[in-house]
């Protein structure tokens, strides 16, 4: 049976994910050839494809999203069917999803009901009669059902957290905040939007310490949050207590996109459910002066697409349509996350939803090349207006930007094995976007060159089974090509960097390598590479650049 791994980009992840096994009736699933999960077309630069490719050595090379939780394990060789990947579920474009990030024995209920966990979060019934042996831990072992909450609802009494960071005590009770406004910020340490929002909210709310308390809440366990946050200096100054291991509270406040903000008034009633983009000084001043704020209500809707289904042609009436060749183009599809999935074994299948043209051109011209991968730092745009191809908007603002109808699109290609899918895709894109001229230029650019230290030998792998394990805090690779690791750095951990990493080691054979350092931290990564006979130096090199030039006004097909 052919295998298929589905990540769920960003968020995107903000993600963690699942390993799916399926078989297609018409187009055979390719296994773990390529997967992509895009958080958003506008989160800190382009979100780049996260690809699983078969390199010429025969192993699977995994490119994992920077905003995934890790660690990730990919086993090479004949036992690849045991591979596991942790990443996120799909998010609505514009923000990161933290759905399914926390592994547990949670029983999900389709009616937004909550099953209390065994650690981290508790809902204590304060009405327990005196002398009754009902402790929070005993109560949490029972199944309690509570409906989800919305604006105007009263927060249940007894909600507390006992897995906390950045707090003197070992317990946080929401009841203790009565008398002040309380802001609950659902976030993820693997989400760039969250990481940027929390320090900003912390600094902003310092002005209102007598009127407002802020509690960030994440589904990640305490040790995982502490590990990841070491990477971000901005969190060193964070004054907010962080509630961790709190996935079950999301049943009270269901959401898909993060940051997700719930504002509670001094009486414990929900005042607003909004996004971090509406947590502004203007809105807070209005809230505390008049009791009302201009907070837009955040409504999360998400349609999950099966990676085996065709976007356009799938239906229940014709089980086998026997499609040989198909190309389709769509506009923005509401409630569907930005995503890209490729399958190659037998027929080729490329499916893209709600992504900007820049990503489509990136895929069509990068093809499956691990060396000339056109990340954001190897794409040059000319003649486009601000926010035309990408945007730094988030949350509701990002959704409004996409709903304008001329920024994000969908694309699907089904082609037989005798056709080059990337050549077909390039031809399609010329028809769909005739206002964009695409060329590949060789330019002198500043790069980070991975080199072998002078006089140092780098022996080939000892021939053990191939594997690749990676997280934001390091990598372990056995019998694996070094170029696959360089590709992974560019596509995931350094995707927002203005400087691409290129491999100038001359090592073209599988190697064994272990690096215990934050992969997104240049200084620490370089020190770890130096211990292994390698180095990462800044220099000028001639590299290929993908150039997108606007040569005419854009006239959408359907507008």
From TrEMBL:
Gene Ontology annotations for the cellular component aspect, listed alphabetically: cell envelope
Gene Ontology biological process terms, A to Z: cytochrome complex assembly
Protein name per UniProt: Cytochrome oxidase Cu insertion factor, SCO1/SenC/PrrC family
Positions of the Thioredoxin domain: 149-292
UniProt biased composition (Polar residues): 119-138
PANTHER family xrefs: THIOL:DISULFIDE INTERCHANGE PROTEIN DSBE
Entries under InterPro entries matching the protein: AhpC/TSA (IPR000866), Thioredoxin-like_sf (IPR036249), Thioredoxin_domain (IPR013766), Thioredoxin_ResA/DsbE_sf (IPR050553)
GO MF term set: antioxidant activity; oxidoreductase activity
Pfam families attached to this UniProt entry: AhpC-TSA
Source superkingdom: Bacteria
Primary localisation category: other
Region Disordered, residue ranges: 72-140
Gene3D superfamilies, A to Z: Glutaredoxin
Keywords noted in UniProt: Cytochrome c-type biogenesis, Disulfide bond, Redox-active center
